[in-house]
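I hope you will forgive my troubling you with a question about protein structure. You will find the record immediately after this paragraph.
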Amino acid sequence: MSDSFDDLVALMAHLRSAAGCPWDREQTFETLAPMLVEEAYEVFEAAQVASEGRTENLRDELGDLLFQILFYAQIASERNEFTIDDVARAVHAKMVRRHPHVFGDAQAETSPEVLRNWEEIKAVEKRAAGDAERQDKSLLNEISLKTPALVEARKLSSRAARVGFDWKQLEDIFDKLHEEIEELRGAIRERDESSSGEASETRVNEEIGDVLFAVANIARHLKVEPESALKLTNRKFRRRFRHIERKLMEQGRTLEDATLDEMEALWQEAKKQVTSDE
């Protein structure tokens, strides 16, 4: 390992020691879990900005995520379970094993071929580990139920597509999207006309989910990460709405004072701005 990495490992060990930090010593796998998810999302956010050429924040967020990984490894080391070196060796061996087209004699000229090989190797590994029953149960087992919904939709459909369960062309998914939108409209009409609100509301929720799933598949076919795309739109909405707030504030007014038409005019004004205030 590099000196800087070894220094960080030593720092983590010191923070967990009797001479270190009381808060750090109190942490467990369970208490760290929410922070790990948060740090991963902050890396995700920083990666979107980095795609625009600004990478400083990505560097810092990757450091925070790395620190979380070292935190987990330090706790495991204290419990005599594994060390960060074991983690590195295990993932190194796995990557070599799962890239036989690079480090062995296997052939894979395209990304789909690589992914098929990857899945076959994983299945062999699971059978060797005595996990064949779980592997046979479903191709989708490894996709966590705790994965954010848009990410989960992409992962589920991508995994199914690897074995040929997919739309043949993009236009077919657009047809499916239009079909789902019509079903959503029908569910809304049914809810509004029905006296049994709970069942009707459930169907509306399901149909909205179907629409989102179809959109996630359009994104997948276009090689667009749907979570990233939605994050970009969310940031754009924040920027434009802040423009409305600032303009009204300059007039000595609040959002409550403005009409919808006035806010829409300011929104259209914000859309014409080239520079970002974020």
About this structure: The chain has four domains: 3-97, 100-137, 149-224, 228-272. DSSP finds 13 helices and no strands in the chain. The mean pLDDT is 89.
